[in-house]
Amino acid sequence: MRANWRQEPCCWWKRVAFYLLGLLLTCLGVAVILQTDWGLDAWNGVFAGLAACTPLSLGGWSMIVQGSFWVIAALLCRRAQWLCVIPIALKGLFLDLSKAAVAHWAIPPGFWPGCTYFLLGYLLVALGTGIYVSTGFAKMPIDGLMLALAERFCWQVQRARLAIELCGFAVLLFVQGPFGGGTILITLTIGQVVAAASTFSQKWLFAGGCTDTAGSGTRAIEEDIHGDRRI
């Protein structure tokens, strides 16, 4: 089935455009949430905490940590997913660009302005992740690490992701990254929201007649979210 959309150049470029748009929206959402005091999800919070106490940027730490995930997954599976290098570099670049773009945003004090900006950022993160996942292109290394842990230790994918997130929480607290009510909210709901966004973006992506080669991948992700799939 992959050969079908590769024979349609317009569909291929459409996927590339959606992939880049999804990553950019995700990073912009992270940057917007970072402007509030509601807290980020565990690992993006780790990047922000490390960036605050070292000379390296948010994007730089993203590349280092995601690169570490990629190496660990490669060692566990005894094979390297070289295409994962692309989203590592792109996310690092987009995070720094997005942070610079919103650096001068002045959020009025008070609960509702902060809540509004947090929800805007969360919507961008969920929608962006759903869009880039729906293309079927290379995922972030944290997803590869999740699958590698599940395969290596015969865990449910949901359990593997929980282990990664718990480690992220521990590191987040250690580096004193941004932690708040939003951190808990994102952790508990992001899977379901991304699944919905991915389904929506697939309808958008394939509206022009392109062959749906990412559908099986999205269905697998939805199964992983609900913990029904074992590796």
UniProtKB/TrEMBL annotation:
Keyword check for Membrane: yes
Top-rank taxon, per record: Bacteria
Transmembrane segments: 12-34, 46-76, 88-107, 119-138
InterPro entries hit by this protein: YczE/YyaS-like
Keywords, sorted A to Z: Membrane, Transmembrane, Transmembrane helix
Pfam families, per the entry: DUF6198
Protein name per its UniProtKB record: BCR, YitT family
Organism: uncultured Anaerotruncus sp
